[in-house]
Specification:
The chain is mainly β. Helix content is 13%, strand content 65%.
């Protein structure tokens, strides 16, 4: 897990060094993440894993190229994983966990300078669920996310961002997850499925560098 974060941070700094500061945006947001369940079997009982709704922090780096923007994004949610039995009202708290996404993607929209700037984006990467109990292994899965929203720039450099998104770590079926050395894999996934979470967030966006008029015209034409 530490290696994943180190590689991801290194990628961001490499991009900044290679591309320079022009046409760059840095966004930070905090919001509410909701939904997220997965059909499973725990100790021969069928039900679903449920990620408790909670707050989530996110940050992203964008570099505009023509009518699009390259995107590197990270988010983190601290939550609780529960087991909800099928057909019953029983609910068991399994463990606390951090849920992180490391993503690369593309964003498209309109750059109107100061004022309202809508955008949409799609990104691929990995989703990592890390139990706070050190006895349970982390789960790393491929992930896809989609997001739409707007930036409202008060000046050429500082603006407000509001967005809504869908996040989905892909889960392979017929496998055990959240294993530990003592009891093995206590949670089994019977059929191919995935966790889908919704996200509503707001924050600040900072734009650096001089705006290139030719790139702006191409961006507006393609958005």
């Amino acid at each position: 897990m530490k290696h994943t974060k180190t590689i991801f941070a290194g990628l961001i700094f490499t991009l900044i060094a290679q591309l320079g500061m022009s046409q760059m945006e840095l966004g930070v947001s905090y919001g509410y993440r909701f939904g997220g369940s997965l059909p499973v079997r725990v100790d021969n009982q069928f039900g679903k894993l449920k990620v408790e709704d909670s707050g989530a922090f996110s940050a992203d780096f964008r570099y505009r190229v023509g009518g699009s923007a390259l995107l590197v994004a990270y988010s983190r949610q601290s939550s609780t994983i529960d087991f909800v039995q099928s057909g019953l009202f029983g609910r068991e708290r399994l463990f606390d966990a951090n849920i992180e996404y490391f993503l690369l993607g593309v964003s498209r929209g309109r750059d109107n300078g100061i004022g309202f700037n809508p955008f949409g984006q799609i990104a691929l990467g990995i989703g990592v669920i890390t139990p706070l109990s050190t006895a349970i292994n982390s789960e790393i899965r491929p992930a896809v996310t989609m997001r739409g929203g707007f930036n409202y720039f008060f000046t050429e450099m500082i603006g407000l961002r509001v967005s809504v998104g869908i996040l989905a770590p892909l889960q392979y079926g017929n496998a055990g997850i959240f294993c530990d050395s003592a009891s093995g894999c206590g949670v089994g996934v019977g059929a191919s499925s995935q966790i889908v979470q919704g996200d509503l967030s707001g924050g600040l966006v900072f734009r650096f560098g001089n705006r290139n008029r030719n790139l702006d015209d191409a961006y507006d034409a393609g958005g």
